[in-house]
Please model this.
Amino acid sequence: MALILNEEQQMLKESADGFLREVAPVEALRKLRDERNVDGFSRSLWQQMTDMGWPGILIPEEYGGLAFGHVGMGQISEACGRTLTASPLFASAVLGASALALAGSEQQQKELLPKISAGELLLALAVDEGPRYDPLAIAMAAKKNSSGYVLNGAKQFVVDGHSAQTFIVCARTDGAVGTSAGLTLFLVDAAAPGVQVERVIMADSRNSAMLRFNDVVVDRDAILGELHGGFTPLQQVLDIGNAHLAAELLGISLEVFERTVKYLQERKQFGVIIGSFQGLQHRAAHLFSELQQARSVVLRALQGLQENHPDRGRQVSIAKAKVSEVAQLATNEAIQMHGGIGMTDDLDLGFFIKRARVAEQLYGDHRYHLRRFAELSGY
Amino acid sequence: MDTTKTQPLAGSERGGQADTADEFRAQVRQWLASNCPQSMQKPLVDFDDRCWGGRHCVYASDDQRVWLERMAVRGWTAPEWPLEYGGGGLSKEQAKILREEMERIDARPPLSSFGLWMIGPAILKYGSDALKKQHIPPIVRGEIRWCQGYSEPGAGSDLASLQTRAEDRGDHFIVNGQKVWTSYADQADWMFCLVRTAPDVPKHLGISLVLFDMETPGVATRPIKLISGKSPFCETFLDDVRVEKNQVVGEINKGWEIAKYLLTHEREMIGNLGKNTAGAKSLSELAVAAIGVDGGILRDPSLREAVARWEVDMCAYELTAERVVDEARAGQGVGAASSVLKYAGTELNKRRFELLLGIHGLDALAWEGEAFNDGLLASQWLRSKGNSIEGGTSEVQLNVISKRILGLG
Model:
């Protein structure tokens, strides 16, 4: 597949960019933060996104979606990076919808996908139990009883967990901690008895939740996919998640870079614009070169997912590893080149660097994905 | 990508024209099958496997000579050049089919030359009809080998300050000066050379691109030894060399524009050095072979991460090179792509050799002895240091990016 966007994807990118800049720019996130908004996102923005069909972009048409694919959704993810737009799009329409589409039974898909597509149902994926991404370390137990399973344990850093109605929970039905066999995905109602949700506000002013499960009873048909076979679809869902996080990180990096170059063209010291100093020019040019390469790996990863390429896992790890490092460089350089003003909360740069680090750490930072790349490459 | 799949010719209706592309592909495939010698259906392993042509060409084998002759007769050494000057006269789409069919059977390029890559395209773009008639056909046939007279002892990164003088003597110039870093000057037949034709104007406005035979009296060359050992580079001394006025490419004093056009080509060539030659082992395969694995994991965890980071960066670079081509075909893309690729590609190649030293340890630094391949790796490692200097230093590429793309300066 050629490494360019087709006309429809380009149009979606431009309209998403324009829409988000107008309706949900960084100031919107600042406002949500400052007023300690209960949802952590704007319900009316979510309605507008729903009106445009965004929650259904990855959902098949038969279930009310647009089936537009990952390259298209990736353009929205990138645009959301540029504006730091908070919404349930990632948790529900990317992770949740993909988990159902990959592992759900026909019945589950028929029941839930149209609701996700319509923006009515918000899902959240509960994987990690510690601060550093490690799906094999899942210890949360799901014990069989007469009618189904009983869940006990805790999940951490569940993206948008406090606003979701339904959780997709990965728990251990078999096998030892540290192994992939014996993991099972469950659909759990957030209001089910024994479920405790505690909102954790993160540095990026986005939401994450701590979930506690005390003897939570679910039916057998709450299993998503195969019993003991949850790891494979989970990996695929997280590959999808990581590709869209990489697209978001690309958007963040491009935005802070463009703002920084603009500042270099305006800011005067010693009687000249600071962009005339070669010491800064070369750092900016190096960053430009890195950004070009980040763009290429993100597009290839999205294309790989879209066409179900056999190497897509590796392509995603390449993208997450590369873009995470580029985003670190871009955000760090942005603050340094802006000087003192870059450290102030009045300027938006702080929002970008905070979101960049959270997005990097989610589902594996660059070191994790370099190791995974090596493993998948046979060393 | 499935390169055997047939694609309709661009810009044409589906149907009828697609058959033409199909037919062309079938013809090419058949012709290659009966004309490309078996020994030429093997990936190039090193520089010496290439055929450079020229008056003094020593062919590595009869097959190499035959392969060049057969391709040259069809003009397929320069597939897209016009028929009237001996080129293949193929459309972009047909040339792509030829390329794909050659790649399919690992056919070696029949000819590698600065004529094909650099001065040929420049003459076709800027030269007079007489120059085209004189120089293009021998380039296509591989009869004349060219070298590039650009850098001077006092004009490296600041190439436009070159001092080699061309004095106007009516119908000819008399050229005096010295060129340096002239690749293969000692084996080349003709030189394309930047000279100063107007001394009293701003430096960019007094430069011309001239062509002359290396056998002209007053031309002398001397090879340069590098830290890596022997090299193709030479110093070239020009002492009262007579150059006919009809051997100026484009207009007199307007050579800088052509020079810049050629530098872009050179950048692209050098930037591609980091790419693995087909069939060569990847960095991680070399690391596994030298260091070994434990439970499937490279024994040195710190080297493992460094190798993985390099391979990831290399993927990003290769995908970017691919994207630049795709964007150009679609009429999109940012400028200065060649500067980005030159900068990124050469820095990657240097990193690769530093990692190879880490992988092979002191084996990589043995300088003599058959067991150590006569110091080949050490020599390649040292040679790679020049990649980010030749063809415009990394710093010059960064200047180009910051001025032309970022508007800083």
Notes: The interface with chain A takes residues 1, 284, 287-288, 293, 296-298, 304-305, 307-309, 311-313, 315-317, 319-320, 322-323, 326-327, 329-330, 332, 334, 337, 340, 343-344, 395, 397-399, 401-403, 405-409 of chain B (CB under 8 Å). The beta strands of chain B are 146-149, 165-168, 172-183, 190-196, 207-213, 219-223, 233-244, 248-249, 293-294, 297-298. The first strand of chain B starts at residue 146 and ends at 149. The radius of gyration of chain B is 23 Å.
